[in-house]
């Protein structure tokens, strides 16, 4: 098995607010992430695909094709958008790193048909990230 | 949340600066010098360490979080950063009075200090000693942490 990782970046705004909680509770749980007008990040996304290299091309999958999938599914959907209001997949979810990375996994997994999606790592800042992988698969 | 057989981990990076000296009482002066090289210099030296930890757990639907960063940061600061930052590992961290403070052993010590985080499961500890070397520990049993 060979693991291939491609990295992309997108910039987006978000805020954390749960309408089921009081204003005070939102402030206590989410702190400055609860500021009503939102704020933004430069997100960095690392997508790892596992597979055997094709004997003819030597590729697990064509990087150009992976780039197109990432552009279509993630960049066009999330780049320079407000994640709370403009990304339907995140509707009714708090757009934390955990939830965004799971949405990204669910968007990408069915689209990657050569090899298989092995891991998604989403950085919200250089010091904070979330990782998604199949239960039992060891992250590399 | 483990829905659809997926596992989600939260990763967080911290920094601390500390000094250490690699020296084993079980080795002769010549052996120490041969094994540890300049890391055996008698007065020690220091690094800007980067600590990266991964925790896992259920993503709370109300908050979207595995663990609130405020809780995680406060715990890591109390258990590790405040004890290690701007300290001599050999002299000020009790376990390193009789264990060599290699970054392997630093990883294990940090794991022991963080594994009781009450809000999520500690999966892994990774420590960068410099930008060119890093070590990971995921909690396997280690019976003897001495270097030799």
Name the features.
heterodimer; A: 140 residues; alpha+beta; Tetrahydropterin Synthase, Chain A; five-stranded mixed beta sheet; 4 helices; 29% helix; 32% strand; B: 148 residues; 5 strands; 30% strand
Summarize the model shown:
The complex is a heterodimer of chains A (140) and B (148). Chain A is of the alpha+beta class and 140 residues long.
Structural write-up:
The complex is a heterodimer of chains A (140) and B (148). By secondary structure, chain A is of the alpha+beta class. Chain A has one domain (2-133): Tetrahydropterin Synthase, Chain A (2-Layer Sandwich), CATH 3.30.479. Helix content of chain A is 29%, strand content 32%. Chain A has a 5-stranded mixed beta sheet with strand order 3-1-2-4-5. In chain A, strand 4 (116-125) and strand 5 form a beta hairpin. The longest helix of chain A is centred in the middle third of the chain and has 16 residues, at 63-78. The radius of gyration of chain A is 17 Å and the shape is elongated. Chain A starts with a strand and ends in a 6-residue tail after the last strand. The mean pLDDT of chain A is 95. Chain B has a 5-stranded mixed beta sheet. Chain B has 4 helices and 5 strands; from the N terminus they run βαβαβααββ. Chain B has a single domain, classed as 2-Layer Sandwich (Tetrahydropterin Synthase, Chain A). Chain B has helices at residues 29-36, 69-84, 89-92, 103-114; strands at 6-20, 45-56, 87-88, 121-130, 133-137. Chain B starts with 5 loop residues before the first strand and ends in an 11-residue tail after the last strand. By secondary structure, chain B is an alpha+beta fold. The A-B interface holds A 16, 18, 20-21, 29-31, 93-99, 101-102, 105-106, 121, 126-135, 137, 139 and B 1-2, 4-14, 54, 59, 61-66, 68-70.
């Amino acid at each position: 098995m060979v693991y291939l990782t491609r990295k992309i970046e997108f910039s987006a705004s978000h805020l954390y607010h749960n309408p089921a909680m009081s204003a005070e509770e939102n402030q206590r749980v989410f702190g400055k992430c609860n500021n009503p007008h939102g704020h933004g990040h430069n997100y960095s996304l690392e997508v790892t695909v596992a597979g055997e290299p094709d004997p003819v091309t030597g590729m697990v999958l064509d990087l150009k094709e992976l780039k197109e999938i990432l552009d279509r599914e993630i960049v066009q959907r999330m780049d320079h958008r407000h994640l709370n209001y403009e990304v339907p997949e995140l509707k009714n979810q708090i757009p934390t790193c955990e939830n965004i990375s799971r949405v990204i996994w669910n968007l990408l997994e069915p689209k990657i048909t050569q090899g298989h999606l092995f891991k998604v790592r989403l950085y919200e800042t250089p010091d904070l990230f979330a990782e998604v992988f199949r239960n039992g698969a060891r992250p590399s | 949340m483990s829905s659809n057989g997926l596992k989600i981990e939260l990763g967080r990076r911290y920094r601390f600066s500390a000094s250490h000296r690699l020296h084993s009482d079980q080795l002769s002066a010549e052996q120490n010098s041969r094994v540890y090289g300049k890391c055996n210099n008698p007065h020690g030296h220091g690094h800007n360490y980067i600590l990266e930890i991964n925790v896992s757990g259920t993503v709370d639907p109300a908050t979207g979080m595995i663990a609130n960063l405020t809780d995680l940061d406060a715990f890591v600061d109390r258990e590790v950063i405040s004890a290690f930052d701007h300290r001599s590992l050999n002299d000020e961290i009790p376990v390193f009075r009789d264990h060599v403070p290699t970054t392997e052993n630093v990883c294990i010590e940090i794991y022991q200090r963080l594994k009781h985080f009450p809000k999520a499961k500690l999966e892994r500890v990774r420590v960068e000693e410099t930008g060119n070397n890093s070590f990971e520990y995921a909690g396997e049993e280690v019976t003897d942490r001495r270097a030799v």
